[in-house]
Design goal:
By secondary structure, the protein is α+β, with helices and mostly antiparallel strands. The chain folds into three domains: 2-139 and 318-340, ATPase, nucleotide binding domain (Nucleotidyltransferase, domain 5), CATH 3.30.420.40; 144-183 and 255-311, Nucleotidyltransferase, domain 5; 186-253, Actin, Chain A, domain 4, CATH 3.90.640. Helix content is 40%, strand content 27%. The protein has twelve helices and 18 strands. It has helices spanning 2-6, 52-55, 79-93, 114-126, 137-144, 185-200, 206-216, 247-270, 274-283, 297-305, 318-327, 330-340, and strands at residues 12-16, 20-25, 29-35, 38-41, 47-50, 65-68, 71-72, 75-76, 103-108, 131-136, 155-160, 165-171, 174-181, 202-203, 227-234, 240-246, 285-288, 309-311. It has a five-stranded mixed beta sheet with strand order 3-2-1-9-10, with helices on both faces. It has a five-stranded mixed beta sheet with strand order 13-12-11-17-18, with helices on both faces. Strand 17 (285-288), helix 10 and strand 18 (309-311) form a beta-alpha-beta unit. Helix 8 (247-270) crosses helix 10. The longest helix is centred in the last third of the chain and has 24 residues, at 247-270. The chain is flat. The two termini are 23 Å apart. The relative contact order is 0.15. It binds adenosine-5'-triphosphate and magnesium ion. Adenosine-5'-triphosphate is lined by residues 15, 17-20, 74, 161-164, 184-186, 210, 213-214, 217, 289-291, 293-294, 316.
């Protein structure tokens, strides 16, 4: 009846991430994947650009424009900017009639506070949703990865995103234990910036550092050396300078951080009840999130934990695909309604 009154309004699944936001439209699949970035006019408070376009402005905008990530460590840090961004993405994803109000299932980290949950719900509501259901990101990730979360077996999922690394064990439709640490892809970029500054007295931008990580970064030494040229500013002469970085030095610069993520995974395993731990030893664990794309990360985790490690097919889309599966599952929607009201 609702649909008739309000016009066609497809339900949406959203992964509102620190680094990227993805939107799934029921019946259509993933329709949007954009950086979680907003550029606002500081004076008027007006939104100037969103997503890819706003990302281009980071570090390049005039002083009255602020281009920034409105989420930090997986949660809403700037409410107005998050709301404006969500509204834009929701509008962009829908072929809704004007005034139609979709139902939204949206992922949140497991350690999110009550206030943070409310901020997400309010942002979604003010972006035009008629109902907003929150799902824990590891649950969405496990569903998106195709793990049998309903069965009485231990499933382990590790999501390394931009802001957070979440390690969770799931069984019988619920999260048995979860650990979330605010170290992930962004910190890797910062480690590369620090390495270049300390070693070469040169300042590179965060986006350059990210490009280095994606191109030649790895968690384990590579079989063959690779290099990449970067441009930055010489801190002594104050002038632009070009430098060639090697995969070996980047692997070493990332090692401390990667080891912390591995320690979090080991702690997650140690926290598992014995029966579930035994299941995981046999069945392996699943890694996902953009950080899981760091080369050889799966090999390192497997070597350090002694269990098989599988990476999801498309780690950047696993959570949003899971929110899409929740949308299609009436029983799960009911569970979420009861739990987060
Ligand atoms: N090929 C790659 N190698 C290494 N890191 C990568 C690669 N591709 C993407 N990343 C990193 O993945 C991170 C983004 O992943 P993702 O989109 O899963 O995060 P998010 O969901 O936005 O963040 P969070 O879940 O922490 O809120 C970024 O730090 C990005 O640099
Ligand atoms: Mg994420």
């Amino acid at each position: 009846m609702n649909r008739i009154r309000m016009g066609f309004s497809p339900d949406l699944g959203i992964d509102l991430g620190t680094a990227n936001t993805e939107v799934f439209v029921k019946g259509r699949g993933v329709v949007l994947q954009e950086p979680s970035v907003v550029a606002m006019d500081q004076g008027t408070g007006e939104m100037i650009a969103v997503g890819h376009q706003a990302q281009q402005m980071i570090g390049r905008a005039p002083s009255h424009v602020q281009a920034a990530h409105p989420l930090k460590d997986g949660v809403v840090a700037h409410f107005d900017a998050t709301r404006a961004m969500l509204k834009h993405f929701i509008n962009q994803s829908g072929h809704h009639r004007p005034g139609s109000r979709p139902r939204v299932v949206i992922g949140v980290p497991t350690d999110v506070t009550g206030v943070e949950k409310l901020a997400v719900k309010e942002a979604v509501a003010s972006a035009g949703a008629r109902e907003c259901l929150l799902v824990e990101e590891p649950m969405a990730a496990a569903l998106g990865a195709g793990l049998p979360v309903r069965e009485p077996v231990g499933n382990m999922i590790v999501d390394v995103g931009g802001g957070t690394c979440e390690v969770a064990i799931l069984s019988l439709d619920g999260i048995v234990s979860a650990t979330s640490r605010r170290i992930a892809g962004n910190e890797m970029d910062e480690a590369i910036v620090r390495h270049v500054r300390r070693t070469y007295n040169m300042m590179i931008g965060q986006r350059t550092a990210e490009a280095v990580k994606v191109a030649i970064g790895s968690a384990f030494p590579l079989d063959q050396e690779e290099t990449m040229e970067v441009r930055g500013r010489d801190l002594v002469a104050g002038l632009p300078k070009t430098l060639t970085l090697t995969a070996t030095e980047i692997q070493q610069a990332l090692a401390g951080l990667v080891n912390k993520i591995v320690a979090t995974i080991r702690a997650g395993l140690e926290a598992a009840p014995p029966e579930l731990a035994a299941d995981i030893m046999d069945r392996g664990l699943v890694i996902t999130g953009g950080g899981a794309l760091l080369r050889n990360f799966d090999r390192l985790v497997s070597a350090e934990t002694g269990i098989p490690v599988f990476r999801t097919v498309d780690p950047l889309l696993t959570v949003v695909q899971g929110t899409g599966l929740v949308l299609e599952d009436h029983r799960h929607l009911e569970v979420l309604r009861r739990r987060f009201r």
